[in-house]
Design a protein that fits this description.
Strand content: under 5%
Shape: elongated
Radius of gyration: 27 Å
Helix content: 55-70%
Structural class: mainly alpha
Number of helices: 5
Number of strands: 0
Largest sheet: none
Length: 136
């Protein structure tokens, strides 16, 4: 008898449709259901637009590429939350901007050297142990 390790919460099985055969609406719906081909179609439709946005915001090609990848990872994690109240491109734009802003916030937090933070503190003079009595 062999024992298999089965995760308690297995991830859904990704199906694979042909990405070029899908309309944008179908691709979004299928990607929400876990279809890898549909997600690929979305990536092909929007990757240049997301990259351009990231590049405009950070002005660094390498960092823009990383942020584009991070934006699509975030999209993969959050696509099920897209409700269709706005256009998909608007929703993806907002997801991408949020990814870039979070990176910039983290970067700014790291860049503050500790030496500069302690310069603003004032030193409290220590009391003298053997101070002469003051005359009355």
């Amino acid at each position: 008898m062999s024992l298999e390790c089965v995760p308690s919460n297995p991830s859904p099985q990704l199906t694979h449709s042909e990405p070029d055969d899908l309309t944008e609406t179908d691709a979004i719906r299928l990607a929400q259901e876990g279809d890898a081909g549909a997600f690929e179609r979305i990536f092909r439709l929007y990757s240049r637009r997301v990259y351009s946005l990231c590049l405009r915001m950070v002005r660094n090609q390498s960092e823009a590429e990383d942020l584009t990848q991070e934006a699509f990872l975030q999209l993969f994690r959050k696509i099920h939350t897209f409700r269709g109240e706005s256009t998909f491109s608007t929703w993806l734009h907002r997801v991408s901007v949020n990814v870039v802003l979070m990176r910039l916030r983290k970067k700014n937090l790291v860049e503050i050297p500790l030496e500069n933070a302690q310069e603003g503190r004032t030193k409290i003079p220590s009391e003298r142990k053997s101070a002469p009595p003051t005359p009355c």
